[in-house]
Amino acid sequence: MSTPKIVILGAGYGGLITSRQLEKSLRNGEAEVTLINKHDYHYISTQLHKTGAGTASDDKITLHIPELLKTDKVHFKKGNVQDVDFKEKKVRLDSGDEIEYDYLLISLGFDVTTFGIPGVEENAFKIKSFQSTKAIYNHILRQMAAYKEDSDPSRLTIAVAGAGFTGIEMVGELVEALPKLCRTYNIPLSETRIINIEASPTVLPGFDQEAIKFTTNYLMKNNVELMTSTKILECSPTSIELDNGEVLPSRTLIWSGGVRGNTLLEKLDLPTSRGRIPVDEFLRVKAVENVFCIGDAALFMKDEKNALPPTAQVAIQQAELCGPNIIASLRGETLKTFEYHHKGTVASIGNKAAVGKVFGLKISGTFAAVMKQVIEARYLFVLGGPSLVIKQFLKIGKPYSKVSAATHQK
Ligand SMILES: Cc1cc2nc3c(=O)[nH]c(=O)nc-3n(C[C@H](O)[C@H](O)[C@H](O)COP(=O)(O)OP(=O)(O)OC[C@H]3O[C@@H](n4cnc5c(N)ncnc54)[C@H](O)[C@@H]3O)c2cc1C
User: Which atom of ligand 1 is nearest to the CA of 42?
Assistant: First the structure.
């Protein structure tokens, strides 16, 4: 009998932690494992807003995947997954390569949803991947450089759509970044605007009142213009039209209006619901043999009506069980059911403040910001042990750089 083949699609939180689990628990020669990812780096998605604002260096946000794999039990393949043939048990890459599997894990993450609002897909910037957020930072630099030449205020008006978790983290980071960028380009900070547009009546919908109040006060104190109960109707390269009749002259709309499962999932021959793949209590795709799905790509119902949210916390806990369940499947052993334990949520507002709840305790301000760092460190610890934590925390890069107006676009 040939060695069983396990193939993992996507090296985000879910795919990487599952790979680590398989490295730890598979016996030598028990299975061939291939981890496939678009790029040869893993990006820490929970910190992408820092790449967007330029407040963290690239090597703090991206980690070279082959260096994260500790043994030769997992083989890394760089490739863009295009399709899966579930009958033939083959994954197709856009290079034309086909990879056979006996056990498959789909952990392809999320995409951004723009609700069909005219112009958003084409003109807004998305907090979706390392490259998409790097594009935000480069665009802001180009706008600053161009402003020096034409003084067009739309270049210094940065709008963030959505004041949910990701939107607030993005705004908080911009608050921290703009003074330094203004110094670099010799532009008065008072000439810049950060506008946060949210359809709900408050920032951080779903958070408790204290968190909402703290965040609102913090942002207003830092001159962020909060436009709650406001919807975006349309966006062009140079303006944003709102439902209150206002047309904002802005060349930078950062969209954080919501996420869904990777759009590729709907092209696969599998049932999807809300853009995600329904899974059973063992994290297996229903009605397809030996196919698992976790993280933002998976729809796991916590009760009859509600699915688990797309968070790193869920993806990590699912991965910690998914590795052992894949091994149990190939050994013919009993699989364990997935139980989610919510430990809390902390949203950063720049480096110095945050709000949230950890183990039932409401926190805000500097202490919450420290807790946020602890949460990030824990993830690095799970991924690469204490050495990775120390290595990442010691990295001091050069996030702020200057581009010339010659490269200005849009
Ligand atoms: C700014 C921001 C802040 C966040 N903060 C928090 C937080 O504080 N706490 C929290 O719990 N969650 C947070 N989240 C959510 C969290 O990042 C996601 O829930 C988590 O990344 C999901 O993990 P995943 O493994 O399912 O997918 P991902 O981490 O998105 O990984 C998917 C991987 O698949 C790869 N991929 C995609 N398509 C293909 C393809 N066609 N071929 C090959 N590879 C492909 C991608 O490159 C990526 O490496 C935040 C998200 C954002 C954007």
Answer: 49
